[in-house]
Design brief:
Layout: E1 3-9, H1 13-25, H2 37-47, E2 49-55, H3 64-76, E3 81-85, H4 94-104, E4 109-113, H5 114-117, H6 127-135, E5 139-143, H7 156-165, E6 170-173, H8 181-186, E7 194-197, H9 210-219, E8 224-225, H10 237-248, H11 252-267
Parallel strand pairs: 1-2, 2-3, 3-4, 4-5, 5-6, 6-7, 7-8
Helix pairs in contact: 4-6
Bound molecules: zinc ion.
């Protein structure tokens, strides 16, 4: 079976190694420790992932532009990648960086990591990002939840203030909003372009009862998108994908929504298909 993975991180080697080290120090037994982007991509392809959303994030000011350039170059060398760039709240050139990525490079959107980037998603410094993405009908992948560690920037309240300000914003909430899944999913009633990726949920690190997971998917079947969070995993992508597929069960329609159709709708491949010629 081929499928889409809507939550994958590739980074330049020094940054990948630093991220590995951070998680290892926090006690994670990373399955893909020390493995770099090209090999990670091969692993995903071998598992059947044909289209991938590749997410980067700048953990400090003044590196977003070079990360985005690296991502653009990586995207040029491979088919089927949907690129999500980064901006940092401390950078003054946010509007021009947004324009460069979306207009010149045709990125599918941006990734925002409230936890690592230490910014509340409703911080007014992010206005150029929000308005730039909204005006071009592109997407945002936002890590707004309280895992893997909590701080004052994360949680559903700040996210709900963001959505109240921009109700038409197209957002993929990472990790189902773990560990406030109920609060995040409830917002899908009010916002027509709100999606949720599964990334690493459920897993031993982020447990969720199978029946509860299936109930959540069935409650908003057009909003849940499969994502692995590769390479930040303590198991292989195959192990994780099998778990999700098994929980979803025998319904081919539901499997198709989660593993293919919802990602395509979020990426806007019909209206924005120049990166992907295979649809
Ligand atoms: Zn992630």
């Amino acid at each position: 079976m081929t499928y889409h993975d809507a939550h994958v991180h590739f980074f330049p080697t020094p940054l990948k190694n630093a991220i590995d080290q951070w998680f290892a120090a926090a006690g994670w037994r990373l399955h893909y420790r020390g493995i770099q982007s090209e090999s990670l991509l091969e692993n995903l392809r071998a598992d059947g992932a044909d289209h991938l959303a590749v997410l980067v994030y700048a953990h400090k000011p003044k590196i977003a532009a070079s990360l985005n350039s690296w991502l653009y170059q990586f995207g040029l060398q491979h088919d089927g990648l949907h690129l999500f760039g980064t901006v940092h709240p401390g950078d003054s050139d946010m509007a021009s960086e947004v324009a460069r990525c979306l207009d010149e490079w045709n990125f599918t959107g941006f990734k925002l990591h409230a936890n690592v980037q230490q910014v509340s998603v409703d911080d007014p410094r992010l206005t150029p990002l929000m308005e730039g993405v909204l005006a071009r009908r592109r997407g945002l992948v936002i890590h707004a939840g309280r895992e893997p560690h909590t701080n004052s920037y994360v949680g559903w309240q700040a996210f709900s203030r963001l959505m109240a300000r921009y109700p038409q914003l197209k957002v993929q909430v990472a990790h189902l909003g773990y560990d406030e899944i109920g609060e995040f999913i409830a917002m899908s009633r009010d916002y027509p372009h709100l999606y949720f990726d599964t990334a690493a949920v459920p897993s031993p690190r982020f447990p969720l009862d199978d029946a509860r997971f299936l109930d959540i998917v069935k409650s908003v079947p057009n909003r849940i998108i499969y994502g692995s969070d590769m390479p930040v995993m303590e198991e292989s992508v195959t192990q994780y994908r099998h778990r999700i597929s098994k929980i979803l069960g025998d319904s081919a329609a539901l499997q198709h929504k989660v593993f293919v159709a919802n990602a395509e709708r979020f990426w806007g491949v019909e209206e924005h298909s120049s990166q992907c010629g295979t649809y």
